[in-house]
Structure formats: C-alpha cells, structure tokens
Amino acid sequence: xxxxxxxxxxxxxxxxxxxxxxxxxxxxxxxxxxxxxxxxxxxxxxxxxxxxxxxxxxxxxxxxxxxxxxxxxxxxxxxxxxxxxxxxxxxxxxxxxxxxxxxxxxxxxxxxxxxxxxxxxxxxxxxxxxxxxxxxxxxxxxxxxxxxxxxxxxxxxxxxxxxxxxxxxxxxxxxxxxxxxxxxxxxxxxxxxxxxxxxxxxxxxxxxxxxxxxxxxxxxxxxxxxxxxxxxxxxxxxxxxxxxxxxxxxxxxxxxxxxxxxxxxxxxxxxxxxxxxxxxxx
Length: 282
Description:
Elements: H1 2-23, H2 30-45, H3 56-80, H4 86-94, H5 96-106, H6 114-129, H7 139-167, H8 172-194, H9 204-230, H10 233-240, H11 244-254, H12 261-279
C-alpha cells in the first residue's frame, strides 16, 4: 500500500512541476501565491478523517516541525530560481533523496538491502543525467545554488520528520492538514516582510496557478503522509522524488521538448531505480 501511495505522490509532483514550468516567468507575489496554495490545500483535505483524540500533542508538534520544513524549503526553492535556472534548482531539489536515505538509516533505523541501495544510486544517477551544467560562476548564480541546496535539505527534513512523527503516534492526515496552515499564514508573513505588491499579484495567471497547484500540493502531502504510514521512508520518499520523469514525459508530449541521449539515459536510470526499490521493498 505504501508503494501505491508513493506513486500517487509521484504523479501529483510531476503534474505540479509541469504546471510551474508552464506558468514560470509570470511576475507575482511569492508570498500570496504560497498562501493561495495553502488555502486550496486546506479546502481539499478538510473532509478527510483526522484522529485528534489520540496523541493530539504529537500531531500538533510534528505538524509544526514538518510545516516549518515544508514552507521554508519551498520558499527557498522559489527564490533560488530567481538567481539560477529552474532546471538546475529543481534537479538539486530532487537530490534530497540522498539525504532521505542517509537520514532514514541513521535516524529512523531503516536498513536497506543491496538491491535497494542500487536503486537509490540509480535514482541519483538519473537526477545527474537531467542536471544542466551551465557555465555561470556569478555571485547571483552561486547564491541560487546555495538556496537550492538548502531547500533540498529542508525537503528531506520534511519527509523524515513526517515519518518520525507518525512513528511517535501523530496522525498522518492531521499533519497533512496542519502543514497547510503554515503555507497560508507563512505566505502572508513572507509577503509583508518582503513588501511584495499584494494587489498586483491577484491576476488570473497567478490565481489559476495557485488554485491548481494547491490541489496538486494537497495530493502530494496527503499521499506522502499515507505512503510513510505504510512504507519505509527510504523507499517511498525516493520513489516520490522520481517525479521529474513524469514532468519530462509531459514536456516532451505537450511542449515538444527534445530528448537528448543523456535524458534518455536518465529515464532508464529512473525506471531501474523504481524497479529495484519496489521489487525488493518489504
């Protein structure tokens, strides 16, 4: 069941990344956009059952921790794309799977088989195949790289904290809903701190992107929490992070992007990773 939810998370992530790709370049408030995503996310998940009778303190605590990781990581990812190409930033962001595996082994006591280690290695190889090595050594480009690396580590922290919280008795659905509040209020605070133009941000492109993205993000968080409830973090989170394969397929079909030999190699590595992780999972 954990594998199934991980693939659902992968699908939502791929669609959300593709949406960002289409609407990238539209100038609007990052904070307001994040808040809109949070509102739609909360509305989409408000009807799911939440067990608040048991271990309510644990659910609140790990919602705060996971929500902080989630909000901060995504804000840094968005900001990193202002200084570095979106392709480089998103690729580095997906490399959080390496930190996830190490963290799951050191912090959660998860043990991987040789085949699963090979699966993680194949996943890392797939990401590197999609990496765009651009010759840009400016200070702004380096700042973008630094922000993307920090976002990647925070994304790994979110997944690991979700898993640890669930292990401590926190309700998976409660954490998913709790994290949305961080996006709603965190986005508003971020907008005020950065003094972003609020009125100018409410254009149709930003609203449409925020609403649709909110639905996908709700799916990402819900399916990720559900996958972690039933499966090992090192396996399900790695599968979920292979979403760039779906994004690439959508880009080739709808945006007519060309497939280079390196990208084809990356796709094969990604497929091999998923095969190794799912075939030999517990």
